[in-house]
Amino acid sequence: MILHGYWRSGTSYRTRIALNLKKLEYRQAPLDLRTGAQKSDAYLRLNPQGLVPALETDDGLVLTQSSAILEWLEETHPEPPLLPSDAAGRAQVRAMAALIGCDIHPLNNLRVLKAVRGLTSDGMGADQTSVDAWAGQWIIDGFTALETLVVRHGDGWCFGGAPTLADCYLIPQLYSARRFHVDLAAFPRLLEIEARAEVHPAFIAALPENQPDAD
Amino acid sequence: MILHGYWRSGTSYRTRIALNLKKLEYRQAPLDLRTGAQKSDAYLRLNPQGLVPALETDDGLVLTQSSAILEWLEETHPEPPLLPSDAAGRAQVRAMAALIGCDIHPLNNLRVLKAVRGLTSDGMGADQTSVDAWAGQWIIDGFTALETLVVRHGDGWCFGGAPTLADCYLIPQLYSARRFHVDLAAFPRLLEIEARAEVHPAFIAALPENQPDAD
């Protein structure tokens, strides 16, 4: 398989974690989002949205949107499972993943921060402090709820005692939170999961700084 | 089942469509997002995130996040199917849904628009024209890619010849686009789907103006 992504993109990072947890082989085809490589004609033919990640499968399928890619991986490569075996548990893990994937990450990614920087009425653009505050509010809102959910459902990881899709989403979001200088002291359960991921080979191999395009 | 939602919330709207397509009975428990009803202690106990929708099932489960609710509905009430029978098709439908659910809707909902209004450096807040422009850019970006995907995969609906989860997402996003005065002329295939939904009983029953809390 070929993963089209970017070392520091949260959606690429979560996809790498899932691929690694399932011990799947893949080659990376990096796109530098800072230079707009994802808007080239060649890439737009693969993914008309011009966003990362995209996964080319061995059958020649091109899959887009990390949430859809992760569900496809779970269906086609079920071991180890990244979703619980019962519908209620699956709904809870998917809700945790969506809390991050829909209510935090989309507000903090590169294209949106660029728009936020352009929003000030004096035409000068928001400074880094304003950008950190913008990103931080969504992270803190989401993590506050997620911490409660992990207390209810987690036992070492977000849900139960083994990594699930929710952890694939959480670890990159914690990495992003640190880049925006968010104080994470109020989220001890999330930090426990992060500490566990820091010594887990699948998560280590997925770290942004361990990717071929990292600078 | 009890659906906690709000008549004009896009995520509540998409959940109603799925419930209706599957011909499931549910009672509505509306929360007025404009007065902050979703932040009451009672509701936060149900959903620590304080967002709509939440679905209380007949077994007493509380499900949150519309994407997780829709997957749960599909697993527990499989007829009629809202996902294709093959993994590749399911990945495509989920990618279309996520294109809307992650890359358009989160940038246009009430809590984010409120933050956008507060972002201008003169402290006066962005005016309605700026808010429409903010919302419109994400809708146009996303719909441009979705139109291409529907040309590839659709046959009357987003994917194939029957409604799927992707249509549950699309119709509320078109409704929202009109509220932000987005010119939709460039998206004829999406408008064809909208026309089909306008005469489909499940979609009609889910319309915001047909809900008990509509004003």
TrEMBL record, chains A, B:
Stretches assigned to the GST N-terminal domain: 1-81
Domain of life according to the entry: Bacteria
Keyword Isomerase: yes
GO annotations of cellular component type: cytoplasm
BP terms from Gene Ontology: glutathione metabolic process; L-phenylalanine catabolic process
Family from the record: Belongs to the GST superfamily. Zeta family.
Sorted UniProt keywords: Isomerase
MF terms (GO), sorted A to Z: glutathione transferase activity; maleylacetoacetate isomerase activity
NCBIfam families to which the protein is assigned, alphabetical: maiA
Domain called GST C-terminal: residue spans: 86-215
InterPro entries reported in the protein's UniProt record: Glutathione-S-Trfase_C-like, Glutathione-S-Trfase_C_sf, Glutathione_S-Trfase, Glutathione_S-Trfase_N, GST_Zeta, GST_Zeta_C, GST_Zeta_N, Thioredoxin-like_sf
Pfam (any one): GST_C_2
CDD domains: GST_C_Zeta, GST_N_Zeta
Identification of the protein by name: Maleylacetoacetate isomerase
